[in-house]
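[SOLVED] Need 3D model of a two-part complex

Original post:
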Amino acid sequence: MNFVHLHLLINHVPTVGTIIAFGVLLLALTQKSDDLLRGSFALFFAIALVSLPTYMTGYSAEAVVKERPGVNLELIALHQSSALLALTFMEATGVVAWFGLWQARKPGGRSKWAVPSVLLLSVITISLMANAANIGGEITHPEILAPGQQPAAAVGALAPASLRSAAIRYYQFHHPNAWPTLEALHFIGLSLLFGVVLVGNLRILGFMRNAPFIDIHRLLPWGVLGFVINSVTGMLFFVGQAFQYIDNIAFHFKVLFMLLAGANVLYLTLFDDVWALGTGDSAPRSAKILAASQIFLWLGVIYFGRMLPYIGGAF
Amino acid sequence: MESFFEWLQGLSISNWIATDESIWSFPTILFFHSVGMGLTAGVMFIICLRLVGVWRPLPVSSMRMLFRIFWWGFGLNAITGSLLFAAHATITGNQPIYYAKLTLIAVGVVLAFPLQKFVKGDGSDGIIPVGIRGLAAAGLAVWVGVITTGRFIAYLQ
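Solution:
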């Protein structure tokens, strides 16, 4: 098992998963079921998380496949830029779906725009994912082409060339302030995210008791904002210099910790044991253990992020 | 000043931080400096955003204990920051952006006192005075500036 296997294993999640989540969403609307609606939104959020390593492991697959004789390099580049476009819409779908879940917790009811936005974004995501997956398939499976059909590389594709790794690396190389600016934003995002993580989990651990959790819950979108800032800047680091990360053990741990920690925001939004904490209330022990593990996981993300150049040799 | 930087950098601890190849010297101090940043700037962002007027239902008085985290984080970073500086004093000591960062930290710390006084005061759950809001907005900008200048120190050498 290596990261090429992992790519081939999880690359079906964004394509098949979004179609399933979309189906659940349609079912929720026809059945007028709130539970199904929440389920489909949670599914979109989870798929958005899994899509990050799906994209990143693609570079490990590229490193192996491009050494083969006769492989179409243009097709690989096209798969990469189409995948980045699809990933962008997938992440937007996940964030908007989470925001819809969060909004539904607000006293005063759910928002009117969450369902139509997720519907629209997920339809776009499904078509972009199908496109990226199809081009990816052509790289090593030319047999999927009909007799006489040209590969996608010859026909042209949806994704702009500016989304290619080479274009992003070129930009970073010719704009010396680009990388440090992204670094500054990455650390601002980190602080914002970590601040919200601390406050939210400290309340669960028993500090700040004169705030009911319903008020603390208002902070979560700002933590998600920090997460989004860091996903965008982090992906720009990755796309520009993928080969200093894909074989970097510190990076593997960073992503693992980040996915585990990221999934927790669903727990805080979906489950009632923390949600119901009023002024002065104490959280159940299970929630406290989870809260402590959250702080630990985010410290781990910071640790392995900071260690990228020292354990793994990134700069 | 130059001779002071040279003396500082010549200390055995500075030398160890700068030249030791293991992850337990410079990298580990750098990690703790990042954690200190998350604590200091992180809770200050929350305090300032609330005082500017975000998350109105959240009682301001519930944020009292956050100042303890802020000061612990600040202490951690004063120590780790000094160690990181000592390791490369002759380089960092000659970077204008380093002094921009120190100035911004000083402003940020000075701003923390009136904010702390208000949050810990009896009337903190009442109306937030315009002056406090203004200081909180300035606090947000200052800590964003501290992080940005700090990050650029590594790249403007």
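Edit: The mean pLDDT of chain A is 90.
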